[in-house]
Each structure stands twice: as structure tokens, then as C-alpha cells.
Amino acid sequence: MAQDGRARIGYRNLMEKTRKFTRDQPEVRRRQLIDATLQCLAEFGHAGTSVRVVCARAGVSPGLVTHHFEGIDDLIAAAYAHVGDLVAMSLDDAMTAAGSDPLARLRAFIDASFRPPVLDSDLLAVWLAFWSLVRRHPRIREIHAGIYGDYRKTLEQLVADIARLRGLTIDVRLAVLGFTAMMDGLWLELCLDSTTFTPEEALRIAHGWIDTLVEGRFAHLAPPATAATGS
């Protein structure tokens, strides 16, 4: 999201995250094509990304794409899944480092969301290209549902654990829907125009949401049956 050189470095680091662990030559070629696709999507968008453009960026012949993928749509789908995995890995690493306490893990999730490599304007360009395909490309739609389904499942477990440990009555699904809408909105706005507010201010807003949760001030998000009885 941030518009300076550090964000671009962060994005490159995201793509480098698993490359050094690859040993199998066909997988090296697939990764080479996926990385080139991500670079082209970030620079040219979906409309400007073709087999020819990707192969020129990767320095390979177009036949290599058809050898490893069914075509440009299949390659873009693989790139979406790959980026989703790497972003999830970055967030998981942050939560693992925070230990087992669900509140600490949720705060670590927030912190990692607003720093490189996740906070990156080039990454938004790639996401926008993917999102433009969700409604009309079944494979992209399937990958999108999986990425966001796993994302929400992780957050729902954290919020449920926090609520249980603190004796809170809350509709976890609605709470997480609100939380993800806030996080996505802050991430998107920072990426589109980093002069609107700073990452530090985004952290204050997001952590303030957590403070409100743990203080038990989300009565409006209590399950309907509980809310109806005034419990």
C-alpha cells in the first residue's frame, strides 16, 4: 500500500519467500512464469497481461506456458493461489511469533497487515487484476472463495477464543464480517492514497476495534436470541 520504494521491496520479498526452497526443475519453470505473471499484472493489469507479454518478461518461449498451463487464464489462476498462499504465510508467521494467546495473535495479525510485504501498492495492483476476474472466471472465483474462507475461519477462531476466555457473548460471524470490512477498507485506502492517513493511524483504528471487543462493548453484535431476552 505504501507508495515508497520500501513497499516495492516488500512485494519482491513476498515473491522471494519460497523460491529458495524449490529444487524440482519443472517447479522452477512454473514459478518463473508465475512470478513474471505477477509482475505483468502489477504493471499492466489484466488487460495488458498475455502469454506473449509474460514470456517476454520471463525470457522464455510461449511454448513453455502451454507445457505447464492450459493458457493465460490458468496461469493467472495459479498466480492468484500463489499470492494468497504467500500472504497467508506472512500473516501466519506473525501470529506464530506472537505465541498461543488469541488476543496477542489477533493483534499480531493486525500489525502484519499494515507493514511490508502485505502492505504494498504493487500487491494491490495484483489483487485488483484478480478481483476483476472473480465474477466471470470460475477457477478464479473458486480460489477467491478459498482464500477468503480460510482468512475468515482463522479470524473467527481467534475472536471465538477471545470471547470464551473473557466471558463475552457475541455473534462471532458478524463480528468478523465487520472486522474484515474494516481491515480491507483501511488496506485498500492506504494503497490507493497513502496521504489520507498513515499505517500507524490504521493500526490505532484496528487495535481500537480490538479494545472495544475485549471491553465487552459489542452488545449490538450479541446473538439474536440473547439480544431479544436482554441477557
Say how many strands there are.
Answer: 0
Average pLDDT, rounded to a whole number, is: 86
CATH architect. name? Orthogonal Bundle
N-end to C-end Cα span: 42 Å
The fraction of residues in strands falls at under 5%
Indicate the low-confidence ranges by residue numbers.
Answer: 1-10, 227-231
Class of secondary structure makeup = mainly alpha
Count of DSSP H/I helices: 11
For the biggest sheet, the summary is: none
Q: Tell me the count of domains.
A: 1
Assembly level: single chain
Helix content: over 70%
CATH class: Mainly Alpha
CATH topology type? Tetracycline Repressor, domain 2
Which superfamily, in CATH terms, is the homologous superfamily? Answer: Tetracycline Repressor, domain 2
Features:
single chain; 0% strand; Tetracycline Repressor, domain 2; 231 residues; disordered N terminus; elongated; mainly alpha
Summarize the structure.
The protein is an all-alpha fold. The chain is 74% helix and 0% strand. It starts with a helix and ends with a helix.
Molecular structure report:
By secondary structure, the chain is mostly helical. The protein has one domain: Tetracycline Repressor, domain 2 (Orthogonal Bundle). 74% of the residues lie in helices and 0% in strands. The protein contains 11 helices and no strands. α2 crosses α3, α2 crosses α7 and α9 runs antiparallel to α10. The longest helix has 29 residues. The chain is elongated, with a radius of gyration of 20 Å. The N terminus and C terminus are likely disordered.
